[in-house]
Amino acid sequence: MGLFSFFGKKDNGQFVSAEAFSEKSTIQLNMLPVLMEKLRALNVDEDRELMLEFFFYTNTYQKSGAFAQELSNLNYQVKYGVSEGDKNLFIITGWSAKVKMQDAVVASWISQMCSLGYKFDCEFDGWGTTPDQ
């Protein structure tokens, strides 16, 4: 019996609740100015296009595979499998196609990743990049 069973929560296999999706999306978008400032300090201007590394988690291998296929359909480089840190989680990671490093464009990409992940019951855990591409 899990902790949440005590409180009456029914385990329906869902990994990302609507509330968690909303909170995580807000957190990711709120972090954007800091990350963009760091990129600007590395001489990455708004005209530059970079691939973005992404990270998602979910609770089943099937969900991770289905989502990886969806991202692959977007011409993203994707791999997925069991998380090294928690064998009960599955990670989906890879690199996007090139994205223009304008705040609004990256914000739109983040929103798209959060929403697409939620559609496949996967949590967007963040992104990164390197200017040396």
UniProtKB/TrEMBL annotation:
Recorded superkingdom: Bacteria
Domain Regulator of ribonuclease activity B: 36-129
Annotated protein name in UniProt: Regulator of ribonuclease activity B
The organism of origin for this protein: Mucilaginibacter gossypii
Species classification: Bacteria, Pseudomonadati, Bacteroidota, Sphingobacteriia, Sphingobacteriales
